[in-house]
Amino acid sequence: MKRSSPVRLGFTLIELIAVVVILAILAGVALPTYFDHQAKARAASTKGTLGGVRAGVANFYANEAMQGAAVYPTFLQLTTVGAAGVMQEILPDNPYAPSATANDILDSPGVWVLNPPVVSPAVQGWRYDNVVGKFWANTDTVPGEKDWWGSGECDRREPSDDPPPRDGRRV
User: Of 97, 105, 100, which Cα lies nearest the Cα of 127?
Assistant: First the structure.
């Protein structure tokens, strides 16, 4: 007589533990990479918005200067969307701000004297100083974000400001 082998209905405990260990190792490798990409995406989004708005402010200033009165856009002109305003689209949210205030813009005339002002806890979106034409992200949650603030205007550098080439020659 032939003996039939028992039918296998599931996985053994050893096989399940091996799968869980492999998934844990993969998660341990993938999650830090995911969070690093998330932080880089926030920084890139903020830098892109700052660049776009600053370019709009610079274009407005240049157009006004060509017409004889070099002035920066008012808060109303900055926040108006379309042909009557500076921006063609609504500003995106500040990715570092809570969702309730992420797209708020705080009118801050005259607060930027020599250094960027302190963060306003009331509005965590964006800030604009129309006296000097500066636009910045109202956040201090990420180290190094003050490096993005810049002047808010077009940076003009003289060739003499560049470091000399490695071979010591001046270009």
Answer: 105
| Beta bridge partners of residue 105, listed in sequence order | 126
Question: Domain limits of the chain?
Answer: 13-155
Q: Give me the average pLDDT of each 10-residue run along the chain (171 residues).
A: 71 94 92 84 87 91 91 88 86 79 74 63 75 80 52 41 50 45
pTM: 0.64
E strands in 49-123:
105-107
Name the CA dihedral angle for 161, 167, 169, 170, rounded to a multiple of 10 degrees.
-20
E strand residue ranges, the chain: 105-107, 126-129, 134-137
Task: For residue 119, give the amino acid letter.
Answer: V
Q: What is the C-alpha to C-alpha distance for residues 94 and 141, in angstroms, rounded to an integer?
A: 12
CA 141 remoteness from chain centre: 12
Strand, coil or helix: what is 128?
strand
Tokens of 116: 């960027």
- Cα–Cα distance, 106 to 124 (Å, whole number): 9
Sign of CA dihedral 164, 167, 169, 171: negative
